[in-house]
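Chain A, query sequence.
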Amino acid sequence: MNLPFRPHELFIILFLLFGLITALVNYLTVRRFDQYPAAKHFPRVSVLVPARNEAHNIETCISSLLAQDYPDFEVLVLDDHSTDATPVILEKLSRNGSRLKVLNGAPLPEGWLGKHWACHQLYESASGDLLLFTDADTRHAPDMLRASVSALLDERADLVTAFPREEVVTWGEKLIVPFMSFGILTFIPIRLVQKLHWSALSVTIGQFMLFRRQAYEAVGGFEAVRAEIVDDVCLGRNIINGGFEWRLLNGTRHVTCRMYRDFWQAVNGFGKSIFAVFDYRILPYFIGWTVIGITFLEPAAALVSRWIGYPLTPFSPEAASLAVTLSLALWSIAYRRFKFPAYMVLFYPVTMLLFLLVALRSFVQTASGTATWKERVLDRPAMRWL
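Chain A, predicted structure.
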């Protein structure tokens, strides 16, 4: 029997079809906070915000948290040895609201990463039955707590994490930041992961993590992941492995975040964590990125090179056209879900190429022990081939 495409072409098309089906199912089944019925009772919530040199973000973030229409909550912020105006802004904010408590960070103990230590100290001072860890660069709609707690209670979940709306302003942000949300939507069957408790495929987003305190304590909290670069992912996997319920929801109507403010911030931010998501396994890391890179770049390169008269690959025009069409559909679904500029879909090969370079840089910096974050050098982790 003659196949319409070569095996290599067929593999890429089938891989893209799998991604398209996964993205569509996720698009249709991952629920928003406001799609749940309002809770009949609202447990006390401690909102916990670590802050290190966040003078350009902290006032907007804390003001949005203090404006919540939730009946019983507190906001705790820990100043993690900031050298900018963060402490001054927090002191001013603390005069205007009894719900806000500002903590000063203790010295960093050996074996801890800075943010993890800050979050652990926040937990120790929290009084809530529910613990919401969020970042200082987020902003929250006034009904965020009501909606997210209602979702957690209705799902009977022990951890609710959520996609925020990621704001992208500069071209560097627009080309780099959307890839991670695209990757999760396209390659992780979220509802299936939840149903089957596949911790290895789970992704938890540190910008929004709402825990039941009992579950958080049972899995050891931040103390159990104190040296892990991807603390959020590890916490989520600990929740699942501990027999608790994990849910990933759509928080784009309630939580907004400008994660990075230029190209190099995005490169450095993603670079410190990409290799860690693969648990520092070298072969799966390079095989995975090679497959993804070839899938999204080769068909586009085949079409462009044939158009200019210098074919770079034996990919047939028919197979390349189908693959590029599927790719555009995939990126369009993700960009619509996460409210990224629609015209950036046309630049998906550039985004893909840049992220491959970021992934390579992540490996090199991790292997050489030169990775840094927030002016702190990250320890070189143990790596393995498989």
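Residues 7-26+277-373 form one domain. The chain has a mean pLDDT of 93.
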